[in-house]
Amino acid sequence: MTGKNKVLIVFFILLLIAVSACNPEARKKKSTDGVKGTNGLIIKFVENSPQDSYLMDEEEEDIFISLEVRNKGAYPEEDEQNVLSRGQVYLGGFDKTIIEMDDISKRLNAGFLTGLSSINPEGGFDTVEFEGVIEPDTIVDKYEPTILATLCYPYITKASPSVCIDPFPFDDKQKKVCKIGSQALSSQGAPIMVTSVDQEASSSRMQFKINIKNVGNGDAVRFNSLEKCDPSGDERIDRDDIDRVELVNVRAGLSSLTCGPFADNRRNIRLYNNEGFVICTLDRADFEDANSAYTTPLNIELRYGYRSTISKKIKISKITSVS
Questions:
Q1: Which of 250, 249, 253, 258 is nearest to 294 (CA)?
Q2: 156-306, what's its fold?
Q3: pLDDT tens, 89-98?
Q4: Which has fewest Cβ within 10 Å: 58, 71, 123, 249?
């Protein structure tokens, strides 16, 4: 091999590396591929915060409550809008005249709560801290409250199964690359999961029944009702706010599908026993130029609020003086 040929080979290798490095879509796809699981944000008490027990005299006692919040789901992806700052942690379960906290709610810091990816396999992490005092005046002997910490936050589920688009579904003689039918999906790194897609076809349209399920440990809440989680607010979450998941869009390739039925005009799917479905239609006009069957991604996006609660029982004992 001549020196000139060696220089050319090195040049082409460097050029390929440069092109690959400058392709953001390729990097993005690689970083989010394979994110699975059934969690979104998870919350737990930091060890010994609050303490298991407190021993008091006639003086106020400081109390600190610290919570660890981790993002164990796929949202948000790189360069995706992060709305987790709408989420908050709320404290409750105790007599506020005995345990006086400076705050009983705090907003999440979205910047720390990035989603899982190949370069961040543990997901984002943050701590939420509360301070307060225990007032001794109304405690005669002991007080054993259960501290509740409720996390309410927005989240998004995305699924992109490949589906079969067949312009001639009843033609059995033509050789085809795919068949119309049903398929089960694996988890998508979110507490609301697209579990399966059932597909049917006629001569004028194709229909997709998209089945979803709450596979997390909390409640699906209407996306626009997150503020109702605040126990000190004027509004409360009611039955019409629970078990609601909003369908943002469904696209087959570049074509948007028409979907229904919905529980309201906000395109919310109602869950019964944690499960629900929506039926989406693709008209023949959207694939009339096709001469044979082909596969394309069915891009599904859901958004919702999610509420989960943890608890810890503590014991506050008062030292009784002997005259």
A1: 253
A2: Immunoglobulin-like (2.60.40)
A3: 999 999 999 9
A4: 58
